[in-house]
Input
Amino acid sequence: MIYEMRTTDIKPKFVPEVEKRFAEAYGYRKKHSPLAAFWHTEFGPLNQIIHVWPYQNLEERARIRAAAVKDGTWPPKIKEFIVNQRSDIMIPLSVSPEIKPGKMGPCFEMRIYTYAPGELPKLMNLWEMAAPRRIQISPLCAAWYSELGGLNKFVHIWGYPSVELRNETRKKAAATGWWPPSAYAKKENVPGYELVAQENKLLMPSAFSPLQ
Output
């Protein structure tokens, strides 16, 4: 499975209107394939929407998108509000669950890491060892690396009932001595991975997002 993560910067004050128009268009689009999640940013880069679509492969993505556009109801009529867009094709790690409709939030933290070229095998190995302990504390929503779009990107997403519980959970995880993965690497004497940039975003789901 692959996930297409589409990130769009919106002109200030127009995110509610964009979500409204997107919801209307999605009423037709979902007959072709379901949306996994739709968020807008609360902290981090403001006036940004992120929508995630699951596909079996790139061929299925191309076929479904062509069929949706042929209907004449897609894409949503929001172009006058768009400042910038990007699309990334993401591959899930073995520890990453499939995104399914349900409640994991309503606060979602998306952490985006840029790793040094050639470090992906180390990252994947360490996450596969360290993540199971962390997932016992709170569930993982997604852990993906980029295949197309921005290269050398790793994204992990966590859902929390509130910002306060997010802070408490992160402190609890760090207190174990096994998290973050760099701590696990030192404790178990296994190779870590080199990061060159990090960022995070606090996301809130729209009313029509299957993942809440």
